[in-house]
């Protein structure tokens, strides 16, 4: 008889939406050996079995962030964190954090930071070039606003980019001047004039960034992620960095690769070099191809069938490609065997993508079994949901968008469209697999904040957006585990705790199924993460 390597008991273990709860679980050879009563599992223990006492806590299947940017998150983690939630509420705090970097970095080295929001600062304004020069006269400094569309550079950075008071703004961008002098503020293509001068990261630095972000994800109970646009920043180098880590057995988390396939991306190059669907290297699996179809609803750029109610009354948002170009691209990648993972937020963009996928259907390449996905999929009609169900297309939403941007959606699109956005309940009832995700670093990776939003539909100021679309707590965990696995063709390996499936488990500090609902957001943290039967994270208390 086979003895367990590891046993979890003394609390409640949620094995899956249909499987429900058990008292104890045994692991052997990286897989779930059995689930059952304490007595049943106790019978499987031997001398070498390690026991984890849950002490009344709850364990769930390892979480799956089905759309985030692991590499970008890791790169950002090495930059100065200026996000409001990290305590940046004044310009003084921004300057203090930059000064700390100046003190330890040799002169001439770039200092990068990101995530500040001037609306959250007591001064209600951006830092200026003079202020940054005072703190960092000899280091090029470049920091970005939380949206990623605005950056501030100091004089040393401007000099490296050959920007003077006389440099005009490039088309599609801004190099801001006040009274004829540079203010430090750059926007859109104006940012690229500076960022082009920042030396690219080496492959080792890319690998370190992936490892850093993966460790952070493990500490929050994640055992699987999708990197949603590999190749967007550093081209093929990103694929090679992932591949090197995975082939050395050093990729810390299961990763579903989504290749960046826009026209300026690496789709065809990656295919030609053998990075094809169903390729697998250790923890790393390939399958998806990312194409963008529109912008964002917060930024008034998601393509809508009716105009926005804020700003220009004739603004319907933007399309990245014409219908013909998009349809051609989707058919092309579909026929190459990839799972399409198309960024579409507005209903007009979703229409373009849906008709494009339907168009790509053929006897030789049927769409039904391919599990194509629409990333974000924020604003859509009931008819479009029906078509998604018929074509086997799943949405991959970010509950945190409701928390962070829900009130902005009301302002930009009006009550009706905002409340109908990200309709989790309708998707679940239609038999779709809406895989919960964070889109980090766009929003926080915190899964408990996300689960809180799934069950309450509350924004950060407490308003409820689409209260009829709430999920139960069990369904929310299901969306964060099984649905993610399903979108990665892994539903028989991960996402539930069933004998024979991977022993990927998160032990939570509190019973997320019974605690006060507000405590999901404020109190629950991950205490322990198990991946392939090995304890890969333990919170120090
Ligand atoms: Zn994304």
Task: Describe the secondary structure blueprint for this structure.
Blueprint: E1 6-9, E2 12-16, E3 20-22, E4 24-28, E5 31-36, H1 38-42, E6 50-53, E7 58-61, E8 63-68, H2 70-77, E9 80-81, H3 91-104, E10 111-116, H4 129-135, E11 141-145, E12 150-153, H5 155-160, E13 173-178, E14 181-188, H6 189-195, H7 203-218, E15 222-230, H8 236-247, E16 254-260, H9 267-272, E17 280-281, E18 284-292, H10 323-335, E19 339-344, H11 347-359, E20 373-376, H12 382-391, E21 394-396, H13 399-419, H14 424-429, H15 447-456, H16 473-480, H17 482-487, E22 505-508, H18 517-522, E23 526-531, E24 534-538
Parallel strand pairs: 1-6, 2-7, 8-15, 9-10, 10-11, 15-16, 16-18, 18-19, 19-20, 20-21
Antiparallel strand pairs: 1-4, 2-3, 4-5, 7-22, 11-12, 12-14, 13-14, 17-18, 22-23, 23-24
The structure holds zinc ion.
Zinc ion (ZN) binds at residues 67, 69, 228, 439.
